Each structure stands twice: as C-alpha cells, then as structure tokens.
Amino acid sequence: MDEQAAARHEIMELSHRYARGLDRFDPAEALSAFSDDAVWDATPVGLERFEGREAIRGFFERDAASVADQFHLITNHVVEFDGPDTARGTNYVFSEGHSVSGAKFRAAALNEDTYVRTAAGWRISSRVISALTPPELEGFEA
C-alpha cells in the first residue's frame, strides 16, 4: 500500500472510531479522532459548535449521559489531500436512537471534514455536520 493509500485508510478509520465511541458511550474513544484544536460544528442540524478537545469532550459526555441507545453508520468517504500533512473530505452519516426520556431521533447527514497529520497520526481538525434530509427529533432536547 502506498503512503497516500495508507493515510486515506487512517483518515477513514477516524470516523469509524468516532462513531464507535459515540455508540459505546465512550467519549474518550470518540474524542480520540480529533486534534487538540479541533472544531465540531453541528449548528446546521440545530445543535452547537464546539472548539477544542475539552469543549468537544463535554458535549460527548453530555450526549452519553442523555442517550439510551444510538447507532451511527458512516459511509461514502471521499478524501482529498491538500499536502503531505493536510487533507479534506466528506462522508455520510445515518444515526438513530432514543434519549433516556424515550424521545426518538433520526438523521441523515453530511460530514465535511478537514484533517491534519499530528505526531500521534492523522486527526480530524474540523467537522461540520449538515442535514441531508430533515432531522427527526421527536421530543429530543439538544
């Protein structure tokens, strides 16, 4: 496998680790996909924007405490390299679940990402989440 193919695989795995961490209610695993100065922005789907690992961690911890069950399917990755240590890409996400109060949520969204190679490997430096279809948030409070 050439260097760029290996980097693409590592980058795609970031989203899989992120999803698995969310679905296992493991904020540390979800957060491990992000750089220290990352931005996670879900304002296009009615949630918030967080800057930096600690702010993102706080959101993931609140999510883990308020969600009873959920799953995230992430697919259709496209990764384009801007240089040896930077890239950008997109992927689709479908998620569904219930809050601890029983509210149902479902969303199909587009993740628009930027990536950076760090001393620890590739990380997501920004993720903007936009709805592909109207999100269903029956009784759900973000």
What does this structure look like?
By secondary structure, the chain is α+β, with helices and mostly antiparallel strands. 28% of the residues lie in helices and 49% in strands. It has 3 helices and 7 strands. Strands 1, 2, 3, 4, 5, 6 and 7 form a 7-stranded mixed beta sheet that branches. The longest helix is centred in the N-terminal third of the chain and has 21 residues, at 3-23. It is globular and about 45 Å long. It starts with a helix and ends with a strand.
Sequence-ordered SSE layout with sheet pairings:
Layout: H1 3-23, H2 27-31, E1 34-41, E2 49-51, H3 53-66, E3 67-81, E4 86-99, E5 104-118, E6 121-131, E7 136-138
Parallel strand pairs: 1-6
Antiparallel strand pairs: 1-2, 3-4, 4-5, 5-6, 5-7
Ends apart, CA distance between termini: 42 Å
Proportion of residues in extended strands: over 45%
- Overall morphology: globular
- Radius of gyration based on Cα positions: 15 Å
State mean pLDDT (0 to 100 scale): 94
DSSP summary, beta strand count: 7
Poorly predicted sequence stretches spanning 5 or more consecutive residues: none
Major sheet: 7 strands, mixed
| Strand and helix order | HHEEHEEEEE
Total of helices: 3
Helix content: 25-40%
Q: Helix- and strand-based class?
A: alpha+beta
